[in-house]
Design brief:
The structure holds 2 protein chains of 2 kinds. By secondary structure, chain A is mostly helical. Chain A is built from 11 helices and no strands. The chains are: A mainly alpha, B alpha+beta. At the A-B interface, helix 6 of A face helix 3 of B.
């Protein structure tokens, strides 16, 4: 029973039970195996799979569509350019966090096949962040490259945001099945651990941008801490289980 | 800080000369404003005022001025003031003017306004966040009010204290800034003819979200210097503490003159987006008012005293 998405096999810190093949070969996979060891062996139908994929795509497009709609109907307020840049950026960050939440969710909910959405979500996050950057450069700065450079050098929040985006590029490029094979599982996985640096950069980027009320970026920081904390805890638990 | 240049510009000098130099624009502007002024005088809530020193640039639409601004007492988002300021009661309202002066006094706001000659002043407003507007205020020179209390020679600075009323100002229930909001000016800045206390906008009574019933407007400084909903004006000997400076002294200086040469860690101050325009425009030193105010700072290093 091979999964269609080879990426899921090379997840950072691949959890027990997220991949049926692995679970079978893994003697320590017993705990999770029990839960779906009984009746749920049948793979969900292709139609249902496609429907779920379509729903995920639509959900990922929804913020952009909503933004475009409000833009066309003039509801983006008095400073629409700033509103668009902010909104797209915030959605990029949200999608990054959703991407980070998939592995823990798959484990906790015992829905291993959730991980097949990780690539989709990750690429949407990359697209939103790319659009965020493009809007800033193309619309806000109107391709004033000198100003862009000054911003990168002088404004810490832009320095960090830009660093995060640049680090995200190789992850997006190597997101295809072909690249997984080309790099080899171990290398590919190590490369994609960069996400653990990129998302914090995104949160700090947001934090530094805020003038006085740091509660909104701190909410994102808290969610990130939970998602990263779970991984630390999980790794520790697994090491303990092995010992 | 010594006052290197005492206000030897007497009260009239700058304005009169400026008006003289711009008399053609002024006459043209006055004609254009005739309708507005008439409407203002006639309207039930309108204010009676004369045209004053103004830019000829096109004013930003009232809707934008009243729905996009910072007034952290009502929340940190730009639309929070317009959404949350409705509950603020601006009557009764007392303004205390005290400190280093011979005749400290408390004024009921309506008496205070009645005693002043109101003028329309269309000023550029540059926010420290890199956006700007053109705003037709109605107000009177701060110096006219200060003159009433007769400042002594010890009055080197003017401190502004604004309303503290968390029950009507939801933003004050959280310590984003140290409430109440405080601002300050050096005395020569305070008595400069361009410095006004505004009580109106677009010929009408000032909306709550823009700082009713009384706010400071200093057009050559970043917008946050314009303290809103003022309850106390004190003449003081020492440089007073100011709200944003207390929060982030490296980001917000006491002077906070609009200065494209002094960057802010978060925003380039070299350019600004005029609300309603697509392309950014160059930010001018002193927000374009340099010819009237640059002398106040002669000999100062404005990169250090930003």
């Amino acid at each position: 029973m091979a999964l269609r998405d080879p990426l899921s096999r090379f997840a950072p810190a691949p959890p027990r039970g997220e991949n049926l093949a692995r679970r079978r070969s893994s003697p320590s996979g017993g705990g999770v195996g029990k839960a779906d060891g009984g009746g749920r062996r049948k793979r969900p139908s292709k139609t249902r799979d496609n429907l779920v994929y379509a729903a995920v795509w639509l959900a990922c497009f929804a913020p952009l569509a909503w933004l475009a709609w409000r833009g066309f109907s003039g509801e983006l307020g008095t400073n629409p350019i700033e509103a668009v840049i902010r909104q797209i950026g915030v959605w990029g960050l949200r999608l990054l966090l959703v991407g980070l939440a998939i592995t823990p969710a798959a484990r906790i909910l015992k829905k291993p096949r959730l991980v097949r959405f990780r690539r989709t979500i990750g690429l949407f996050a990359f697209s939103y962040i790319g659009l965020h950057l493009l809007t800033y450069i193309g619309v806000d700065l109107f391709f004033d490259w000198g100003q862009l450079w000054k911003d990168i050098v002088k404004r810490p929040f832009i320095t960090l945001g830009m660093a995060g985006f640049i680090l995200l590029v190789p992850l997006a490029v190597t997101s295809t099945n072909g690249w997984v094979v080309r790099l080899g599982r171990a290398t590919w996985q190590k490369l994609h651990w960069l996400i653990y640096l990129i998302v914090p950069l995104g949160v700090v980027h947001y934090y530094l941008l805020v003038k006085a009320d740091h509660r909104p970026p701190l909410v994102y920081a808290a969610i990130l801490a939970v998602l990263l904390g779970w991984r630390v805890w999980d790794a520790w638990e697994r090491r303990r289980a092995k010992a | 800080m010594l006052i290197r240049h005492a206000p030897d510009l007497t009260d009239n000098d700058v304005t009169d000369q400026a008006l003289y130099l711009r008399r053609r624009e002024f006459i043209g502007g006055a004609a254009g404003l005739g309708l507005l002024a008439a409407a203002g005088t006639a309207g039930a809530r309108g204010l009676a005022y004369k045209p004053g020193f103004s830019t000829t640039e096109t004013p930003t639409p009232k809707k934008d001025i009243t729905s996009y601004n910072n007034f952290y007492e009502f929340g940190v988002n730009k639309d929070d003031p317009s959404e949350n300021a409705g509950a603020l009661k601006t009557r009764p309202w007392t303004v205390r003017v005290d400190g280093e002066c011979e005749k400290p006094a408390s004024f009921a706001i309506d008496d205070l306004i009645k005693g002043q000659k109101l003028e329309e002043r269309i000023y550029r407003m540059r926010c420290v966040e890199g956006w700007s507007m053109v705003i037709p205020w109605v107000g009177f020179p701060l110096k006219d009010l200060l003159a009433q209390v007769k400042p002594t020679s010890k009055a080197k600075f003017v401190a502004f204290e604004t309303l503290m009323r968390p029950s009507e100002m939801p933003g004050q229930r959280w310590d984003t800034l140290r409430w109440p909001y405080r601002e300050g000016l050096r005395i020569d800045e305070a008595v400069h003819p361009l410095t006004i206390l505004a009580v109106g906008l677009y010929g009408d009574v000032l909306p709550n979200q823009n700082g009713a019933p009384l706010r400071l407007v200093v057009p050559w400084k970043y917008g946050f210097k314009g303290a809103k909903s003022i309850v106390r004006i004190s003449l003081v000997e020492r440089m007073p503490a100011t709200a944003w400076n207390l929060l982030a002294p490296r980001e917000y200086g006491f002077y906070s003159n609009v200065n494209p040469a002094v960057d802010h860690p978060r925003w380039s101050q070299a350019t600004e987006r005029r609300i309603g325009e697509f392309r950014r425009r160059e930010t001018l030193p002193f927000n374009g008012y340099g010819q009237y105010v640059a002398d106040l700072y002669r000999g100062m290093d404005l990169k250090r005293d930003f």
